[in-house]
Amino acid sequence: MWKSLFKRVQNIKKRGAHWIAVSLIIIGLTALFFSLHKEITFTLNGKQETSTTFALTVKGFLRQQDIPIREDDVVNPPLNHILWGNKHISIQRASEITVIQDQETTQITTTERTPANILAQMEILLYPKDRVIVDGQSVDPDSPLPYHPYYTLQVVRATPVTVHTENGVKAFTTNALTLAEALWDADILFHEGDDLSLSPQTALTGEPVQVQLTRAKPLRIILPEKTVLSRTTAETVGPALTEAGITLQGRDYSIPEETEPIPENREIKIVRVEEKVLLEQEPIDFSSKWQPVNDLEIDQRTIVEGGKYGLQASRVRVIYENGEEVSRMKEKEWTAKEPQPRIIGYGTKLLNGTVNTPEGEKRYWRKITAYATSYHPGVEWLQDRTVTGYLVQKGIIAVSLEWVPYMRGLKVFIPGYGLAQIEDSGRGIPGRYWVDLAYKEENYIPWSQWVDVYFLYPAPPPEDILYVLY
Question: Which of 73, 74, 176, 429 is within CB 3.0–4.6 Å of 182 for a Cys-Cys bond?
Fold first, then answer.
């Protein structure tokens, strides 16, 4: 019994030792895992970033970040440095720099960013007023440049310049690239027309320069579109215009003329002369013609054929001076296209309607809407009888003078007035169909409204019908 109990105790001790060993291994592996997984801060050309990695060396980390390293690049710590714990890695890219100085070109690969230090590495000295040009831009030689894989760095040496003018001699030292820039910096302005013994684009390389400047006299040239201020040494108008790049073409002329001396006020006026041959066109209005349409009801209209404008053409020769017309002559005139009349169809088909009247239902062959007024013979200028001899009384109506020859004696019905007969005429109302309703003086009723006028059968013969009312 005691042996059995002892064996059990021994087994429990062995199992406990086993689990302790396993736990220690797990703890060790976890510690190793966290020691290998680390946070790295790296700076590439001044830009700082942070990343995590399991890489053991700087080289492995950079490969993981896909950052290639060239031979001239500077990496700190070195590529084979073991990464343990949090680290900072700095990568400084090298730039290929082309250096131009004293007409010599040299190339250097360096991580240096300050132009003055780069030149010092190449044992190139800078003197007062020397300029440093990087990729075409003037820079401060003591200020670092941003990273770029390629640069062109130029040293522009200061140049002694002596300028001889009619007012004396001026000497100065300049770091300009060209003679024109040097004169501008020295406040020596020269104008087109001035005589400069050297080209303004002469490059300054540090060698002393002697130049003669002969001033031209100012000149004001007035063109139609602008005024040109120029300078010239010419004595006459023609050469002065040529120097200013102004040409006279065709019938253009100058005031004064080209062969005359430049006037004392130093002003020349240019007159541009332009001749144009114009083709002018004017529409010719078309007329209107009326045409009966048998299947169209009376007082209805339709366009049978639209009119077409004609075209009157002429050739005109026009002379302009400075854009203003000074003469115009018509050389030829002709009819390019004859007008075509507009054909208006008017209805000739009589109506066959009926209307209720005080005498019963009656047929009518025409119906119009007219503006109705009324009259009676008591007015001073009205007679007791109509133009056809009827007494002025209810049942007699007047129409405009143009209608009377066609409508005299026709029977009509007007609601509100009654049956009537056309037997009188009046002046009418322009732009309106009009009827004037007659009354005796004692039973006069004033009218001023639109009414329907029914023309009752029998209708007059076709040749006596006024189909188109005006």
Answer: 176
